């Protein structure tokens, strides 16, 4: 079974992380498939909205640490970089259905979504500093603008997690639902029924004030992230994380 499922229902495309036995942790191959899926959808006139979802009990545990250590994404043409670029530049409505853990990129990708619906079980975290790394996906720019500097600093610097109620209050998600995918699909249907060029132009206008700034920050983040990945500090943090995981 493919680890990324791409299915289309009328004019709505659903991209599903399909590695539930690993809490949908993302590998470099999965990132590359995600990037291609989004880029293909951007150019497909039959697709009017895209939903991101996770199979099983979790949205995604973020990066597969073992794969990450074996193949650190330090090049600008890596699957990770391509996926983040496809998120930044995706011109159509992007909706997310979240349940369980949304860790690391599982949270930062939501900052690029237009509407996020989460289950009450959803748990969000961006533990980059815990792993000796720095924020990515433009989150060091987007998250403070969303929640305020001090709250963002606390969350980034402590690696603490927060629940769906907090995420709703912060504005990271739009709605809490016991059936997040069904609700996300309803919203996607309502959006898809609108005149498509008006929707694309509206999204472009909504993003216009921050797009170039986010692109510049993402480039800086990626350079620092790549340097951090090769540092002794990150290696020690990764090994500590893996040993904790192995003993739990």
Proportion of β residues?
15-25%
Number of strands: 9
Radius of gyration: 17 Å
CATH superfamily: 2-enoyl-CoA Hydratase, Chain A, domain 1
Helix amount? 40-55%
Characterization of this structure:
This protein has 248 residues and is an alpha/beta fold. The chain has a single domain (4-179, 211-247), classed as 2-enoyl-CoA Hydratase, Chain A, domain 1. It has eleven helices and nine strands. It has helices at 28-42, 65-70, 79-88, 105-108, 139-147, 149-158, 164-170, 180-192, 196-208, 211-229, 232-247, and strands at residues 4-9, 12-17, 49-54, 94-98, 101-103, 115-118, 123-125, 161-163, 175-176. Helix 1 (28-42) links the parallel strand 2 (12-17) and strand 3. The mean pLDDT is 93. It is found in: Peroxisome. Its main location: other. One of its GO terms (molecular function) is delta(3)-delta(2)-enoyl-CoA isomerase activity. Keywords: Isomerase, Peroxisome.
Concise synopsis of the structure shown:
With 248 residues, the chain is α/β, with parallel strands linked by helices.
Reconstruct the topology from this structure.
Blueprint: E1 4-9, E2 12-17, H1 28-42, E3 49-54, H2 65-70, H3 79-88, E4 94-98, E5 101-103, H4 105-108, E6 115-118, E7 123-125, H5 139-147, H6 149-158, E8 161-163, H7 164-170, E9 175-176, H8 180-192, H9 196-208, H10 211-229, H11 232-247
Parallel strand pairs: 2-3, 3-4, 4-6, 5-7, 6-9
Antiparallel strand pairs: 1-2, 7-8
Helix pairs in contact: 1-3, 3-10, 5-6, 5-10
């Amino acid at each position: 079974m493919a680890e990324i499922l791409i299915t289309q229902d009328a004019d709505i495309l659903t991209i599903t992380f399909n590695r539930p036995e690993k809490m949908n942790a993302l590998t470099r191959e999965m990132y590359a498939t995600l990037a291609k899926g989004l880029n293909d959808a951007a150019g497909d006139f039959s697709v009017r909205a895209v939903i991101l979802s996770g199979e099983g009990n979790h949205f995604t545990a973020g990066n597969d640490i073992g794969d990450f250590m074996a193949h650190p994404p330090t090049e600008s043409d890596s699957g990770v970089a391509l996926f983040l670029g496809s998120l930044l530049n995706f011109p159509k409505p992007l909706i997310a259905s979240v349940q369980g853990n949304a860790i690391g990129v599982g949270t930062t990708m939501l900052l690029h979504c237009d509407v996020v619906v989460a289950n009450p079980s959803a748990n969000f975290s961006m533990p980059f500093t815990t792993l000796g790394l720095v924020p990515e996906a433009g989150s060091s720019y987007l998250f403070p603008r969303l929640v305020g500097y001090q709250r963002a600093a606390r969350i980034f610097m402590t690696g603490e997690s927060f629940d769906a109620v907090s995420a709703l209050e912060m504005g990271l998600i739009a709605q809490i639902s016991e059936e997040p995918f069904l609700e996300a699909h309803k919203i996607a249907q309502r959006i898809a029924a609108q005149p498509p060029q008006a929707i694309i132009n509206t999204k472009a206008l909504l993003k216009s004030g921050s797009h170039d700034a986010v692109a510049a920050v993402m480039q800086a983040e990626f350079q620092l992230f790549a340097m951090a990945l090769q540092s002794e500090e990150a290696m020690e943090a990764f090994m500590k994380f893996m040993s904790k995981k192995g003993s739990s």
